[in-house]
Amino acid sequence: MNRTILTQLRELFEKLIPLLQEDVSTLKQEASRQEPLIQRLLQREIEEREALILQLKETIEQLSCPISPLDHPDITVIMPEGEIFEETKVVDTFIKTIENIGIEKVKELGIIAFKKRKLPLISDYEDTEDTQKRLGQYFIATRVPTNQKLKWLHEINLRLKIGMQIEDNRKDE
After folding, report:
1. What angle do CA 162, 76, 166 make, to 5 degrees?
2. pLDDT-above-70 percentage for the chain
3. Predicted confidence (pLDDT) per residue in 37-55, tens digit
4. How remote is the C-alpha of 54 from its chain's centroid?
5. What DSSP string runs through 66-93?
6. Which of 146, 149, 150, 172 has the fewest Cβ atoms surrounding its Cβ within 10 A?
7. Residue 128 CB: number of other CB atoms within 10 A?
8. How far is 106 from 121, CA to CA, in rounded Å?
């Protein structure tokens, strides 16, 4: 899971806790005015919500831990609509970005991945040298250095006039 999703989850959980706490308070007030049977049922509800609050707090604590250097993504792609792709593995970010753009659009660009073998970046056939990953009915060249993947992303961005931001996070280290 990328940092953006983890941050969004943490923020969502942080907003839920006060709502649940207010709900517990209301249930406690209501229970004090009820018959013993209803009080026991409401007490069970109160206990379940208090347990949920504790779970949410523990989860928030875990989500707040800094990302270890091993989890730091080497590249980040930010789409014009704000969607962010920054998987731990560069190849996963690369593939998710191409899927988001549309594999057909990228295929139509006719980018050649390996000139000697005339292997396209996205082909209809599997290469014999195991340099691709299957993506639906196509095969995408992936067994190349990060710099090459960045170069292809910049070319796709330029030629399709997408306006995405492509960041090389390796420079930060």
Report:
1. 40
2. 91
3. 999 999 999 999 999 999 9
4. 26
5. PPPGGGS-SEEEE-TTS-EE--SSHHHH
6. 172
7. 8
8. 9
